[in-house]
């Protein structure tokens, strides 16, 4: 049993800790092998008590008291590997919450969980209600800001506008993801989307597409067949598909195009430079022409292959083989025979590779592949 001197010493040590440090330490660790194994054995139950404001050590301390009619802070603390000081601090905390009854320096008993935890549950419910109210207010504030922004934007709309530079282009794409109400149709040509610097990663544009799809917008996306050059591109496509984006692939696409709600069209300002910016057109003729172009490509496109059809690694190896043949200066007819395809298909694959790697000649393609580590 801890005597009054022990408890006074504990109180002195307690004053040297801040409340945050004390509970953080006792809630996340304890000394001794017995305490470590015990705390690890009931993680799921401790998670539930954590929702009532109890740390791991406090939860275990209370549980051990529940199995004993009467005990002491020192005795239970010793079974957990806690010092007298640490045990008294935990006991005082549980006493203040009504989970224990008695004297910290003397005998203690556990209060029945239904009686003891009911006030804690009520407190947690009030806290949750406050958080829910704050969330609702925050959502209302966001809607208000969006409405104000939309009014300002609508007042400045013109039949055609240009947004120059990568930042302006990307900002407009974010606006599409946030404000599209019914549909977005996109043709993703070679290279990165307008405003995106990384050409081998769909993460940024994929997050916008997935966000729009989760909002209930019908997103249709045309990708190049040559995305199978890099596993990251294939993985990005499947991530978007999992979020609800409808994806098909085609051999070629002329330029990045977005058709939003059948109301306006966004195109890359320069197909060869995705950092140049974008152009927005709101005329019926522009929207109709872009929609017709998209539909023509969409009808002839192939659905995105399921992940288990052929792995990105296997597909990338085919491209490595093709680039290796180009490095050896093998003729098109011989390349076709080696790959088991027609000469025209072999030439198309080479052309697609050049477009995807953003080069204009086969020599440049081989050099770029070497720099990327695709050739041994």
Q: Which properties best describe this structure?
A:
11 strands, three-stranded antiparallel beta sheet, single chain, eight-stranded mixed beta sheet, 376 residues, 57% helix
Number of strands: 11
* Percent strand: 5-15%
Count of separate DSSP helical elements: 16
Largest sheet: 8 strands, mixed
What is the residue-averaged pLDDT? 79
Structural category is: alpha+beta
Largest sheet: spatial strand order: 4-10-9-8-5-6-7-11
How does this model look, in words?
- The protein is built from 16 helices and 11 strands.
- The chain has helices spanning 4-15, 19-28, 33-41, 43-50, 56-66, 73-79, 84-97, 113-155, 166-179, 203-214, 231-242, 284-299, 312-327, 332-339, 343-356, 362-371, and strands at residues 71-72, 100-102, 107-110, 160-164, 183-187, 218-224, 246-250, 257-260, 264-268, 277-281, 302-303.
- Residues 1-47 and 308-313 have low confidence and may be disordered.
Nutshell version of this structure?
This protein is 57% helix and 12% strand. The chain has 16 helices and 11 strands.
Please specify the SSE layout and strand pairing.
Blueprint: H1 4-15, H2 19-28, H3 33-41, H4 43-50, H5 56-66, E1 71-72, H6 73-79, H7 84-97, E2 100-102, E3 107-110, H8 113-155, E4 160-164, H9 166-179, E5 183-187, H10 203-214, E6 218-224, H11 231-242, E7 246-250, E8 257-260, E9 264-268, E10 277-281, H12 284-299, E11 302-303, H13 312-327, H14 332-339, H15 343-356, H16 362-371
């Amino acid at each position: 049993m801890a005597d009054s001197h022990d408890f006074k010493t504990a109180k002195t040590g307690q004053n040297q800790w801040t409340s945050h440090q004390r509970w953080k330490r006792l809630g996340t660790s304890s000394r001794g092998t017995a305490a470590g194994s015990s705390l690890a054995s009931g993680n799921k139950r401790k998670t539930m008590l954590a929702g009532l404001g109890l740390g791991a050590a406090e939860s275990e301390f209370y549980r051990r008291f529940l199995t004993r009619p009467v005990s002491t802070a020192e005795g239970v603390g010793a079974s957990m590997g806690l010092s007298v000081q640490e045990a008294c601090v935990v006991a005082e905390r549980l006493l203040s919450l009504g989970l224990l009854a008695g004297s910290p320096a003397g005998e203690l008993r556990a209060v029945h969980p239904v009686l003891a935890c009911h006030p804690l549950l009520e407190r947690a419910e009030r806290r949750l209600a406050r958080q829910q109210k704050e969330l609702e207010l925050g959502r209302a504030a966001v809607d208000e800001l969006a409405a104000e922004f939309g009014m300002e934007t609508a007042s400045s709309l013109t039949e055609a506008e240009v947004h120059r530079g990568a930042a302006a282009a990307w900002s407009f794409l974010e606006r599409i993801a946030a404000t599209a109400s019914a549909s977005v149709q996109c043709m993703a040509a070679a290279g990165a989307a307008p405003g995106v610097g990384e050409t081998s990663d769909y993460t940024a544009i994929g997050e916008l597409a997935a966000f729009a799809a989760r909002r209930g917008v019908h997103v249709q996306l045309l990708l190049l067949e040559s995305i199978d050059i890099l596993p990251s591109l294939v993985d990005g496509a499947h991530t978007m598909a999992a979020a609800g984006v409808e994806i098909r692939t085609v051999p070629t696409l002329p330029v990045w195009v977005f058709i939003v709600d059948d109301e306006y069209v966004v195109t890359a300002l320069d197909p060869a430079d995705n950092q140049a910016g974008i152009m927005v057109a709101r005329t019926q003729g522009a929207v109709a022409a872009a929609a017709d172009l998209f539909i023509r490509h969409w009808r002839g496109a192939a659905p995105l292959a399921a992940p288990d059809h052929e792995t990105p690694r296997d597909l990338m190896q085919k491209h490595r083989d093709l680039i290796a043949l180009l490095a050896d200066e093998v003729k098109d007819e011989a390349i076709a025979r080696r790959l088991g395809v027609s000469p025209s298909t072999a030439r198309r694959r080479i052309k697609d590779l050049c477009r995807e790697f953003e080069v204009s000649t086969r020599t440049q393609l081989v050099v770029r592949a070497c720099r990327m580590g695709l050739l041994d």
